[in-house]
Amino acid sequence: MAVLNILSPQPKTRQLTSASSYFYIHNNDVSKQRTAAVKSKLHSMPSHLKPGSSSSSGSGCSWMKNNSSIQDNIDGQERKEGPLHSALPTTPAQVSSVKDLFEFICSGPLIDKVGLTSEKVAESIDKWILCASHLCRLFQINELYLTEPQKVRIYHYYIPVFLWCEEEIARHNSTFKDKDEIPPLVIGFSAPQGCGKTTLVFALDFLFQITGRKTATISIDDFYLTAENQAKLRESNPGNELLEFRGNAGSHDLSLSVETLTALSKLTKEGTKLKLPRYDKSAYNGRGDRADPSAWPEVEGPLTAVLFEGWMLGFKPVPVEVVKAVDPQLEIINNNLQAYYDSWDKFIKSWIVIKIQDPSCVYQWRLQAEIAMRGDGKAGMSDEEVLDFVSRYLPAYKAYLPTLYSEGPNGSDPDHLLVVEIDEGRNPILGN
Cross-referenced InterPro entries, in alphabetical order (predicted)? Predict the structure, then answer.
């Protein structure tokens, strides 16, 4: 029986010897009320299940412990797995049965939203275990010693979203004929800053890559104006604090966006390549600048999907009186938004909206990110600068999030929209 540390260990255990390690499993069998298919799946030991890294599990305040190397991978868009140590823990772990894993998965808040049932979960339990094993290796955490936050993040969040994306890709591909060149599906991730969307996209990209499908990851940050052009924007809007720094509508190179997204849609054949723009947020003491093209990563076709993320993806212009009531400086931002549908949103066919309960969380999340950046030896903003920086985004959140949450992203199809509501710990909740 395949085993993972999913729930608290029970007292009765027996030892199972495999070729390379010891696992402890429960004496309990899956309830007789389960269907034969469920019992068959839940009692099997997949040959691919191997222990991950033997490093310590995450701390109570974070779902990962010592994730600085992972953040390096994200910032650099590298695709590296965590180390796999040959030595197992000296003391065999007490771990829960796959029955408990099955029940834990089915208790997740996204199961119904992504169209899964307990029967479908049981039929694909091997796939869940394999995906979890890959993610544990990626994030350098031990799959046999997962903390509660780690279990939630992997089984209640990352894997369900991955399976939803797979289904969206299958639907997209089914609309083309056998001999057609199928353009990659562009999946948009609209989520506030600091809520974990970049790490989510990183995890999804890794799962696609390791299962043999090529994807490209881009962010609206990659399309910020250069430092020089940002200075010109600031000078042409004196006194408007919302355009003093990068971030709001008007501070992006929309022609570069269209050029990049159009070129990505054409990566349908082997050998086709494209360099993706990247933005260096640490440049100019945290004010940022476009990275040198020599540092831009290259992607090669054929692409299965493009994972496009950003804090204001899908924002729609609202009546002038609405933005003026929030902040009069938003009026020009609202006008600038008119051009964003044709530059960004119309390319996106499937949407994931990460919904937050209180935009004030953004400050704390952003502060954590800057502290991590400084801890890695990179230039970052001070705590006071973070407060000032985030304050320039909050008016847009107040003006545009209500419409985003009630109507969906600009031009989105409700049949291809997944809304994930998260708490202050960045974990999914049932929501409304």
Answer: P-loop_NTPase
